[in-house]
Amino acid sequence: MKLHAARAAAQRALPVLSGLVVIMLAGAAFAQPVYRSVDKSGKIVFSDQPPSAGSPAATAPSSGGNAGSDAPLPYELRQVVQRYPVTIYTGDDCGPCGSGRSLLIARGVPFDERTVKTPDDIAALQRLSGQTGLPLLTIGSQQLKGFADADWSQYLDAAGYPTSSQLPSGFRNAAARPLVAQQAAVAPSTGAAPRSAAAADAVPAPSSEPTPSNPAGIKF
Question: Can you give the pTM of this predicted structure?
Fold first, then answer.
């Protein structure tokens, strides 16, 4: 009688034990780390296998947290940035400059910011754009002088930038830099006066006639 009762109890406990085993196995599967990497074409790949140590695009295991400021851009956005890089030229106490910067940030446009403060900066801006008004926006070789929300948006659309941010969480643009980087004031042996390193020259974009596929008449 006791043996029969023990067998019956074991049979009743078997489904419970089986369920516990399934739950434990499922928990182990969920606890397995997931690794995030970027392949050669720029696509983000998730895998339970760690990326090879020699992979240039290898990243730390994904934990669901915020990405760092060096997180890779989405493939399509990175292609647009490479074709038509955006630079905004700003100055102190410039309300339109702040409005233009806010528009770029709201749309998630990666951009470089150059500040115009010194006489050298102003001279470089004059050579670059033919005027000294701020802000100045360049999209590729296209220049937009002064801030106008509709105009900037139209040109960004034509270049292929998204209308809403697609940047990785935690992305940050580089800090603003002076338009002209000042060199150390050390007189050369020839006795010539020290010179400042001017920013790279950019050729103002030629005018372009609007077409059905390019209503803004943009010449990148």
Answer: 0.57
